[in-house]
Write a structure and sequence with these properties.
Blueprint: E1 4-9, H1 17-30, E2 35-40, H2 42-49, H3 56-70, E3 78-81, H4 87-96, H5 101-105, H6 108-116, H7 125-128, H8 130-139, E4 145-148, H9 153-170, E5 178-181, H10 209-216, H11 238-246, H12 250-262, H13 267-293, H14 296-325
Parallel strand pairs: 1-2, 2-3, 4-5
Helix pairs in contact: 3-13, 4-8, 4-14, 8-9, 10-13, 11-13
Length: about 325
């Protein structure tokens, strides 16, 4: 029997090369051998952007375009928007009734974001309850596998605990999903930190070649290379980290590595080579993105079909949940 996979992304804007290398490339592979449900989780976006939600719909469209351009195929996987399937909110409510506060307060993401995101008021019930909605998203489809990077595995353990707790009260209804640890290549942003829209250091999937070059050209490199004649250390250079992801020419990578250490190649030349490889990889992706961008009716059909397929599965799970809770049904 084909195993079921669930994963999702918050619609916070256009996706970047970190998303492509860290998640989407793997999702495209998974759709070939698993029953995959991929959701644009707009309720999650509202948790942090409730003060101004005007861009959520447009951001959903941008995420959908990037997903399709990267190779997700609506004929091979179920692509949908979270709020289009009302059972997500319904199961979230049911799980919230049994969620211990201590579990939520100990969540690593909750503590980290409360400390680091200072420009938004995150002291809300919904933000504290983020893991409950995440658990509902996964358990609603009885997903057997959730692909995550190693740094996210603690989050999924809360989902597993939620399933165990629900089952202890109401019977064995919700299976515990298994973690599929996936390789997450290091794709730093233009300032050397993790690539992130919130840091303003991202190279987007939708960027034109000239926009990409305008971001790559001023990128920081090894601080020790103050002059062209100074030798450098590629392992201290974020440009080299991106080479390792997008440059598939092993012979050239050896030359770049050696040239940097001996000052045989300058940083600008290294960046030009990186630009060429990114253009090679992104050319077909951006061509596909352009096609879908000009086909709004097709995008609507994809999401409508995806929501219908997702709800078929979600409604079956909720019927079991409602029965297990002992609620009186309308009939």
């Amino acid at each position: 029997m084909v195993q079921r996979v669930f994963s999702g992304m918050r619609p916070t804007g256009k996706l970047h090369l970190g998303h492509l290398a860290g998640a989407l490339t793997n999702w495209v592979k998974l759709q070939e051998g698993y029953q995959c449900f991929y959701s644009i989780v707009d309720w999650h976006a509202l948790m942090s952007d409730y003060a101004d939600s005007s861009m959520i719909a447009e951001n959903c469209r941008e995420v959908l375009l990037d997903w399709l351009a990267s190779g997700l195929d609506p004929e091979k996987c179920v692509i949908f928007v979270q709020s289009h399937v009302p059972q997500h909110a319904e199961l979230h409510l049911a799980l919230s009734m049994i969620s211990p506060l201590g579990w939520l307060q100990r969540c690593p993401t909750y503590k980290e974001q409360i400390l680091n995101i200072q420009n938004k008021d995150l002291s809300t019930y919904a933000f504290l309850g983020y893991p409950v909605l995440m658990a509902a998203d996964i358990l609603l489809y009885k997903a057997e596998i959730v692909p995550v990077g190693e740094d996210q595995s603690a989050h999924l353990e809360i989902t597993r605990e939620m399933a165990r707790r629900f089952n202890s009260f109401f019977g064995n209804i919700l299976p515990e999903p298994q973690i599929m640890l996936t390789p997450t290549p290091k794709v730093p942003g233009t300032d050397g930190r993790k690539m992130s829209k919130s840091y303003g250091n991202s190279i987007n999937i939708a960027d034109t070649p000239s926009e990409m070059w305008n971001k790559i050209r001023p990128m920081i490199t090894d601080p020790a290379r103050e002059r062209r004649t100074d030798p450098g250390d590629p392992e201290k250079c974020p440009v080299w980290d991106i080479h390792k992801v997008f440059n598939n020419n092993e012979e050239e990578k050896v030359e770049i590595f050696s040239g940097c250490r001996t000052a045989g190649i300058g940083c600008v030349d290294c960046k030009k080579k990186l630009q060429a490889h990114i253009e090679r990889v992104m050319g077909p992706i951006q061509e596909k993105r352009s096609f879908y961008e000009k086909s709004p009716d097709l995008l609507t059909d994809i999401l409508r079909h995806g929501a219908r397929k997702a709800e078929e599965t979600a409604s079956l799970t909720m019927e079991e949940v409602i029965r297990a809770l002992g609620f009186f049904r309308r009939g």
